[in-house]
Amino acid sequence: MRSGLLSIALLGVAGMLAIAGAGLAVAQQAQQEGPAPKSIWATQTPKSQGEPHGYVQYQDYCAVCHGTGVGKPGTIALQQKYKGAEPALLADRTDLTQQLIKTYVRNGISVMPFFRKTEISDADLDAIAAYLTRNNKRAAK
Question: Which of 110, 91, 98, 100 is nearest to 141 (CA)?
């Protein structure tokens, strides 16, 4: 019985050491790679591409879920919801208003989380909303 408890204790200590070692390795790698992105959601689109600020911010914050390609949960959810009646890609929509976009971003909707001002600034959100409503001639600014 005593040897069984000792074995369990040693396994627990070994597990904690392994976790601590992995954490140290991640921290060292982060130091080598330089500063972290401004948000866990941001992909850091290079601004040198000459794209408008709203497009760059949309790529940084939104395209990870609402972009083109495989595995974009926001785009997939909108495909299921609208079944072709509206474009699933937010960048292709013509019916969005800036206020609606800002409400969804700040409050979340369905499985989309809300984003605080410390995650997406008001200025960046204004730029994103302007970009997404550029095709809506009737959008209330």
Answer: 98
